[in-house]
Structures are given as C-alpha cells and as structure tokens.
C-alpha cells in the first residue's frame, strides 16, 4: 500500500475535511442555530400554524404513498431483472435509472403534458371520469414516485444478484411453491436492502420540491407541501418559520441517513 | 427402474448441452454421473429435479411421468454444490423447511429433525446459524434437509466439490455408509474419477452432452468402451497402436519377450514406491511406463538405458482411436 | 453507504458478478425465461412504468416537435435562454472538475486515512443527497448569504450557482470512487513498489488508471445532476435573467407562462443530455466489466 508522507497526508485530510465542513457541515448546523436562536418557541410555533400543519400532513401522506408504490414496483422489477431473462431487459435496466438524471422541473412538465385536466393527453378523459391528477394529490404522488423510482431497485438488485438463486431452487426442490419461496426465502434475504431502500426513498420523497411544485399548483393549505412552505415563507419574509420547517425536514432526512448508517454494517451480507 | 431418462436434449441458445441422452437408474442404487467440466452433468441432474426443463425427451421418476412436473411436485431431494443453505434460518429450521411446507404436525417435524440431525451428527448445532458451521457441516445439514422430506430420489451436484481433500474423503465414506443405511435411490455428480470408483454402484460417464458409457466401476475400469472413458478413469499411454495403462507395460533390459519394442529411457522420476519412466521408442513414440521401485532397481536401469517394452498379460488394452490425453 | 444508490448503474442485464465461487455463465443471447406469473408481474410493472415515466417523457419530445424545427430553434436562440444554457453548462463543468479533484481526494482520505471523526465525515457526505434541495439552498444562504458569518456576500451571483451545484453533487464522485478504492488490490501496489516504482509513479500508473472508470462514471452523474438542478437554486441564486438563471428555472418560467411548447423544447434538450450520460455510463461500465 502506498504510504503517503505525513505532510501530504495532512494536506489531503485538511482539504477533504475543510471542503466538507465549509460546504455541508457548517451551513447545515447554522439551520439549527437559526431555528433555536430564541429558544424552542419558533420551532414549536410552526405546529400552531394551520397551513404549515396541513402542509406537513400532506407531505407525509404523499411520501408514504410514493414509498409504498415504489416498494411494490421496485421489488417486482428487481426480481424480474435479476431472476429472469426476457427481451428488452437491458433497455429496461438502463431506463430505470433515467429519473436520477432528469431535472425535477422536467419531471413535472412531463406529467403535466400527459395528465393536465385541460390540455394533457389523458388528463381530460381521466377528469371526466371524476379524477383529478394534476393540481391534486395523485399528481403529487406520481411526481414523487418518479424522482424516487430507482432508489429501492438500486439497493435490492445487488443483493439479489449476490445471494444467487441457489436458496430459492433448494426451496423449490423441497416442495415450496413460488409464493412460499418468495415469502420464506427471497424476502427474508433481501429484507435489509429493502429497508435501506425504503428509508432512503422516504427521505427523498419527503424532500421533493421541483417536480411537486410544478404539478401541485402550490395552493396554500391544500396542495402545498413542506418544501413548498419553506420557499413561500422565506419569500414572505417569515424567515423564522421557513428555518423551523427547514430544520424539521433536515432533521428527518439526516435521521434517515443515520439510521441507515447504523443498520448497514451489522447486516452486510 | 427408479429414474428413467429418455432421449433428453437440452440446448442453451445454439449450444447443445445434452444431446439425446437416455439413462435408466435402478431403485436403491448409488449412481455417479462422471465427466469433465462442462460435459452436461449438472444440466442432466437439474432436468431430473425439474430445476431446468428439457427441450425434448422425457423424465420418469418412480413410474410417474415427471417431464412437465414443477420441482416441488417431484419429491426429489437436491443437494447443491455450494450448499444453498437458508442463511437466515437455524440449522434445525433449515432441516424442518420441507416438512413445514408440507404442513406436517409440529411434533412430527420436531421428531424428524432430531432424528436427521443425529444421522448427520449435527445435533449439538441445531440452534446455530449456517454461517457458524464449517463447510463440511453445512453440506451435511443440506443433506439432512434434503432427506427430511423422504424423497424418492436424492440428487447431489458435486456435493463435496467445495471441500478440502481430507473432509471430502471423510464425507465420501460417510455418504456410502449413509446410503447403505437409508437406501434411497441416489445420483451424485462428480468429476473426480476416484470418488466415483470408490463410492458408486454404477457410473454414468458423460462427455460433451453425450453418455459415453454406463457400467459398474469394475466394468468401466476393465472394459472401457473407448479411449475417452479409459483416459478419464486413469492414466493412459500408447504403445504400437494400442492404448493401455502405464503400469500394464512390462519392462525388460534385454529383448526377452517376443514383440518387445525397443527404446531408450529419456526421463526417470522416482515418486515414493514407484518409478515413472518416459521411454522414447525406436518408432519415435514417447511411452510412459510405471514400475515398482524394487523392480527398477533389480533391472539396474538409469536414464539413457536401452529397454524393451511389451503389454503385460491380462492388461486392459483398446485399439488407439483419436488422439486423446 | 449509499454507493449502491449514487454509484453507476448496477450491471443487471449483463453477467451477474457474484462474489461466490464461479457459477456457470448465463449469457445465451436474448432468451425468455418468464413464467406466466412473472410475465403478469412484468406486464403490470411495465404498464405503471410507462404511465409514470415513458409516456410523459415521450410527451415532452412530441410536444417539442409539434412546432417544427423553426420554433425549436427560436426557443433555444432567444438570448435569455441561451444565457441560461451557457451559465448552466459552464457552472456544471466547473463543479464537475472541482468534484473530480476534491471528490477523489475525499474518497482517498475516507479509505486510506485514519483519524478521529472519519465515520462522521462518511455520514456527512450523504447529507446533500438526503437533504431536501430547498433546504439545501436555505442552508447555504445562512453561511454565504446576506448575514454571512464569513462576511461573504455570494447570494444572487454566479458564485451562488456554483455553490449550490457543488453542494448537491458532492456525493457522486466520492461514492463511486470509494468502493473501487476499497477493492483495489494492495498486492499490485506492493508488486509495483518491489519493482522499483516510486510513490508518485504508483499513484499515476497503478492507482489512478484503476480509478479512472469510477471517476468518469461519477463525473457523468455529477454533471447530469448539476445541469438539471433546480430546488437548491431557488432561494440562493435569485434567478436573475442573464445573470443567475439556470435552464431548469427557465423551463419553469415557460411553464408558468403557459408556454408549454417552449418548455418542452428546452426540456427535450435536457433529456437528450441525460440520455447521453446514461448511454455513456453504460458504455464505460461495459468496458470495465470486459476488462475483468
Ligand atoms: N443456463 C445456461 N445458459 C447457457 N449455457 C449453459 C447454462 N447452463 C449450462 N450451460 C452450458 O452447458 C454446458 C454443460 O453445463 P453443466 O453445468 O451441465 O456442466 P457440468 O458437467 O456440470 O460441468 P461442471 O463439472 O463444471 O459443473 C456448459 O458448457 C455450460 O456452459
Ligand atoms: Mg456442474
């Protein structure tokens, strides 16, 4: 192993730590400082603001739906991609990653073009059937699903590949049906990967901003999510509320990361 | 017949893995599928188990046509080369799996698991996770798991392939004894001819997707159907147009026997009790000969000595065909 | 950590690289091994995937094409849009270069150095990924904005754009390079040293070439993310036309003005870039896989 000399090591260490400190650690910690500058009152205050509470509830509802949908979709696709051969598999596995590099605004626009009640491709017919997608929660759930789509798949696929199909085949040879094999063998082996994926998707879903902004219409008290409230409050010069909600969001997302960081090493396969 | 495979062909894309294979395996026997790597042994075993499907041909297990049956309906036990243990279950749970799937009463499951763990000498490890077992112990557990459901046939794919030489030898003897006790029709895959010769009642030699020969170990060793089988079961050398084993060549320091081929010793290697010689004959052939150390000493030979070679009386010889080995 | 999520796409369709003893190859052309149940699952999954991703993205391309080539050119040739494109691409490139240098350094420090607090650093690297983008903007504003404790007034300048992009793209290269560096064979370095290579030579000739594909993959992801960034810029950059307005903001203002066709035209260019990055990644990946 290359041994770097002590000065070089210190230089590299300083660059790494300094960069991360200035860019991430310090700024993030300032949010906490701003929030609790005058004690807890500001932070507690957000829970008495009707619109903010509505936004938090909406955010939670949208995020949970998106995570559940992505969970079902993600696990299904992962198993299909790893365990089966079918034409078009390579293309599908590449397409799955698209949401990672598409701008949230473009995601919003794309959904708008198809599901907008007035001008979208499918929107008018869906609307005449009594459903509203855009400017309502279904659209927001779809936008959130879109941006968080690959996360669970990216956690589960490597684990499925790694464990191979020996255990599943052994179960089949011992008389287990497809369903029994999935529930008793496959699912327990990918359990932790699924949990990480869910936690990360939850963090991502709670924090989605651009795509939701486009499809929600941003109506205060009705389709405004927590991230949209941060923007609105900041621009209305209600900075303390903005910082308090931002702190709450930052706290939840960092908590998700810490949970994952703690879980992972113990259950590495 | 316990297992009847008829005209099975299996292709992967353009590659023919099994080419019109037919074998019948009698009830209660221990059969080895022997052959070089990539020959199609695993493929045949997996088709018998239903883990793969044949493109054409049929598989009959204990009198029922199993060709279209899914693996869980065939009542076969399968033991995988890399154990395929259920990592998240204890040893006892692993063994109980097949019984629980079959919804057997709890008391029966417990009793059976206990019996089986005793049979494979793992009783004290019942509550461990497989990751806390050695390779040999894992494989014994996998075997107990397969036996738990009282399969009509037991299929083992290179069961000892991933183990070190010593454990391998122990488990091999143990499998033979186990089979003598349990008497379930057993097929195991191996590419180790010694393993096959030592343990099996019957050997099926498979190469390039075809069955080369079926027979008892003695039959195969003494009457190999062709050069391939002969060379696969042991060392082979060629002497004036025939194939034979190096230790079946008589070596003389003077032309005493009729038809002796003259040659010079180009290399001489002493390994333990035997001496391996390479003899360059006057016809330009390189022949390997193995003699005992005592015999070599009594002849007083050394590198460069002139010697005469003849096939020993009663040697297994077959006419030389394509150049193999 | 989250390398599985930030790293280059797991090579699913190709050879499954298992850590276990070698298994047989399963690459016999496009075969179909779907059971009826799996086929149904694939059908439903594809239906949802199409409704959610494929059809909407197609709608962008179709809408963009509706006005014909000329309107396409008009949108892109407008001064304000062009300025936004130039700003976005320039800043994304700068940030990517910074990430290549600093990201690789951080990965190196995380793998090869040992010091108190290293595990904390490891967790912090993922913060930009998990933090909502709007919060990221707000967070940066508190250190680099009007009341900066550092005395820096970078809000509403090009610097702010760079800062925001650097923040959100920080994890990409670190998380693609880190696992490769961890797996790097120490024997090779020792062999090189025993053959007389100096430290500099080992880094240049042995380590960097092995990291190059990972760095390239991370850089591609980082660039793709940078050019599509929106949320973190909203509060920080002020969205001043010709000065700090990025492409995503431009698309949004087209949408808000009801000019969906222009929005779609610009969005389709962004999609093309995203697609290009994905294909490039796939190729790099395959190269590396072939090299063994
Ligand atoms: N799923 C598959 N896809 C493509 N080719 C396959 C597949 N399974 C097996 N093969 C090919 O079929 C041939 C026979 O394989 P098989 O596994 O039966 O060999 P084997 O005799 O068991 O060899 P080994 O002793 O190495 O296990 C090999 O050439 C292999 O590459
Ligand atoms: Mg095999």
Q: Overview of this structure, please?
A:
The complex is a heterotrimer of chains A (269), B (325) and C (292). With 269 residues, chain A is mainly α. Chain A has 13 helices and no strands. The longest helix of chain A is centred in the first third of the chain and has 34 residues, at 50-83. Chain A starts with 5 loop residues before the first helix and ends with a helix. Chain B has 325 residues and is an alpha+beta fold. Chain B folds into 2 domains: 3-228, P-loop containing nucleotide triphosphate hydrolases (Rossmann fold, 3-Layer(aba) Sandwich), CATH 3.40.50; 237-319, OB fold (Dihydrolipoamide Acetyltransferase, E2P) (Beta Barrel). Chain B contains 9 helices and 18 strands. In chain B, helix 2 (91-101) packs across helix 3 (106-119). The longest helix of chain B is centred in the middle third of the chain and has 18 residues, at 165-182. Chain C has helices at 3-6, 36-66, 68-77, 79-112, 118-124, 127-130, 133-144, 158-183, 186-194, 199-227, 231-236, 247-256, 260-291. Chain C is mostly helical and 292 residues long. In chain C, helix 7 (133-144) packs across helix 8 (158-183) and helix 9 (186-194) runs antiparallel to helix 10 (199-227). The chains are: A mainly alpha (269), B alpha+beta (325), C mainly alpha (292). The complex binds adenosine-5'-triphosphate and magnesium ion.
């Amino acid at each position: 192993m290359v041994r770097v000399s002590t000065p070089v090591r210190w230089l590299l260490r300083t660059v790494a730590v300094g960069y991360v400190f200035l860019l991430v650690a310090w700024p993030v910690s300032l949010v906490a400082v701003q929030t609790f500058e005058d004690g807890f009152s500001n932070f507690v205050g957000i829970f008495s603001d009707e619109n903010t509470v509505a936004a938090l509830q909406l955010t939670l509802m949208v995020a949970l739906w998106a995570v559940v949908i992505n969970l079902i979709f993600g696990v299904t696709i992962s198993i299909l991609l790893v365990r089966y051969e079918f034409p078009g598999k390579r293309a599908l596995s590449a397409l799955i990653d698209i949401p990672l590099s598409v701008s949230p605004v473009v995601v919003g626009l794309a959904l708008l073009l198809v599901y907008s009640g007035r001008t979208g491709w499918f929107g008018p017919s869906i609307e005449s059937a009594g459903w509203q997608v855009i400017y309502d929660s279904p659209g927001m759930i779809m936008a959130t699903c879109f941006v968080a789509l690959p996360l669970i798949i990216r956690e589960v696929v490597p684990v499925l590949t790694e464990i191979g199909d020996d255990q599943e085949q052994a179960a089949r040879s011992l008389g287990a049906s497809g369903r029994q094999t999935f529930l008793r063998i496959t699912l327990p082996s990918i359990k932790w990967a699924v949990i990480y994926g869910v936690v990360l998707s939850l963090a991502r879903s709670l924090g989605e901003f651009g795509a939701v902004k486009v499809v929600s219409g941003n109506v205060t008290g009705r389709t405004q999510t927590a991230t949209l409230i941060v923007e609105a409050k900041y621009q209305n010069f209600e900075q303390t509320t903005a910082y308090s909600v931002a702190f709450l969001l930052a706290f939840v997302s960092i908590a998700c990361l810490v949970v994952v960081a703690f879980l992972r090493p113990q259950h590495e396969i | 017949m316990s297992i009847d495979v008829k005209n099975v062909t299996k292709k992967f894309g353009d590659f023919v893995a099994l080419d019109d294979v037919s074998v019948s395996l009698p009830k209660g026997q221990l059969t080895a599928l022997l052959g070089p790597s990539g020959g199609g042994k695993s493929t045949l075993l997996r088709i018998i188990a239903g883990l793969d499907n044949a493109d054409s041909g049929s598989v009959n297990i204990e009198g029922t046509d199993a060709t279209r049956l899914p693996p869980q309906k065939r009542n076969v036990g399968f033991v995988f080369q890399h154990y395929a243990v259920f990592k998240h279950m204890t040893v006892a749970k692993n063994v109980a799996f097949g019984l629980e799937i079959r919804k057997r009463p709890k008391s029966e499951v417990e009793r059976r698991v206990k019996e089986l763990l005793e049979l494979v000498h793992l009783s004290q490890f019942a509550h461990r996770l497989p990751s806390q077992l050695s390779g040999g112990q894992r494989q014994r557990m996998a075997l107990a798991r397969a036996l738990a459901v009282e399969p009509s046939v037991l299929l083992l794919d290179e069961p000892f392939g991933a183990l070190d030489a010593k454990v391998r030898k122990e488990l091999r003897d143990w499998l033979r004894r186990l089979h003598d006790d349990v008497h379930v029709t057993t097929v195991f895959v191996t590419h180790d001819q010694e393993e096959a010769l030592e343990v099996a009642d019957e050997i099926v030699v498979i190469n390039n997707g075809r069955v080369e020969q079926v027979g008892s170990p003695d039959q195969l060793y003494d009457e190999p159907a062709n050069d391939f089988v002969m060379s696969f079961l042991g060392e082979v050398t060629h002497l004036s147009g025939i194939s034979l084993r190096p230790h079946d060549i008589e070596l003389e320091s003077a032309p005493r026997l009729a038809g002796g081929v003259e040659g010079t010793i180009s290399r001489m290697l002493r390994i333990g009790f035997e001496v391996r010689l390479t003899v360059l004959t006057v016809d330009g052939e390189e022949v390997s000969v193995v003699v005992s150390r005592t015999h070599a000493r009594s002849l007083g030979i050394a590198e460069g000595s002139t010697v005469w070679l003849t096939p020993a009386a009663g040697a297994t010889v077959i006419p030389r065909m394509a150049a193999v080995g | 950590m989250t390398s599985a999520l930030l790293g280059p796409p797991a090579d699913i369709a190709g050879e499954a690289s298992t850590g276990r003893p070698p298994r047989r190859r399963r690459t016999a052309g496009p075969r179909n091994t779907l059971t009826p149940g799996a086929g149904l699952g694939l059908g439903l999954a594809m239906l949802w995937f199409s409704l959610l991703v494929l059809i909407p993205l197609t709608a962008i391309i179709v809408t963009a094409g509706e006005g014909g080539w000329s309107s396409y050119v008009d949108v892109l040739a407008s001064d304000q849009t062009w300025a936004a494109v130039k700003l976005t691409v320039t800043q994304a490139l700068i940030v990517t270069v910074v990430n290549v240098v600093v990201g690789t350094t951080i990965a190196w420090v995380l793998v090869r150095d040992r010091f108190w607090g290293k595990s904390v650093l490891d967790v912090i690297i993922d913060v930009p990924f998990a933090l909502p983008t709007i919060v990221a903007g707000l967070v940066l504003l508190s250190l680099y904005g009007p009341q900066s404790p550092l005395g820096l007034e970078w809000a509403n300048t090009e610097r702010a754009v760079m800062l925001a992009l650097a923040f959100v793209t920080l994890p990409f290269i670190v998380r693609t390079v880190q696992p490769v560096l961890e797996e790097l064979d120490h024997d090779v370095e020792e062999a090189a040293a025993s053959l007389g290579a100096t430290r500099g030579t080992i880094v240049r000739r042995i380590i960097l070439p092995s990291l190059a594909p990972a760095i390239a993959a991370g850089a591609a992801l980082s660039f793709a993310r940078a050019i599509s960034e929106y949320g973190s810029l909203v509060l920080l950059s002020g969205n001043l036309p010709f000065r700090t307005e990025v492409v995503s903001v431009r698309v949004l203002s087209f949408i808000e003005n009801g000019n969906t066709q222009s929005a779609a035209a610009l969005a389709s260019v962004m999609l093309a870039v995203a697609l290009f990055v994905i294909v490039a990644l796939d190729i790099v990946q395959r190269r590396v896989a072939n090299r063994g």
